[in-house]
């Protein structure tokens, strides 16, 4: 096996408008770094010409390898497949839409030279919609409070992982993969720098509001059990409030005798309690659902075609 210093892992979903341009830019930059490299593309079940383009790129250049999924399995699955494919001493994860500028790669590699196992390029929020940046900022603040691991705003998947860090990521068996959390969880010496946000070169973002919301909930649930504790606390608080109110009524009856009204209070209590119970059940359900999913032990993606030798894939999976 030829030695390879750097693997670039690129998940692609319907990126036929930019993939050529991305590839040309990337290769030019990589060649200036004078390191041996490979580029691992993962086509996440694109419905456009992405797969054909990747096939052509791989045929034209032995440093290019690709894997194509049988359908869209999501970016997390695509990144995982890419990491499994990679053979380099260091792996850089990048988006195909040029939002992760290839021009930053030399800087990332230089930081790796200083001994860091994870080098994170975090973007500032310039150019983001107002609503999106407000919501994200708030979300990361809540996450910061709730989670036992650190997740920083703007830190995406644009990062370098050393081989030991990659192996650590691959050693995590969970099916519900929340990469931001995983990267933080594995630890290692990490350094980050900020770059100016760029917008997508072409095509459209695959992250609508709904997808982002689901992703947000995944993040909260995957890495801690605090929502469950929150449910317990809410229950206890309500119970104490009910006890206090009962006491209040008892004293009232002792002092003034029985008075009948109280219909509104009763209704409010019933409705409020019902709401809390449903919410709590929902939280429990989120966890149970995940347990169910994990116990199925399904593979996280199905490969339709690849130029990677089956033997290597097996080794990596084993
Ligand atoms: N992507 C993917 N599978 C998906 C959605 C996205 O592999 O289901 C890839 C996409 O091709 C791109 C990267 O993940 O290379 C980031 O996606 P996008 O640019 O849509 O996200 P955003 O930059 O808006 O967060
Ligand atoms: Mg993008």
TrEMBL record:
Record's protein name: Glycosyltransferase
Keywords: Glycosyltransferase, Membrane, Transferase, Transmembrane, Transmembrane helix
Segments traversing the membrane: 230-251, 263-288
Source organism of this protein record: Streptomyces yanii
MF GO annotations: glycosyltransferase activity
Record bears the keyword Transmembrane: yes
Enzyme Commission number: 2.4.-.-
Family under the similarity heading: Belongs to the glycosyltransferase 2 family.
Cell compartments where the protein resides: Membrane
Membrane topology according to the record: Multi-pass membrane protein
Major place of residence: membrane
Keyword Hydrolase: no
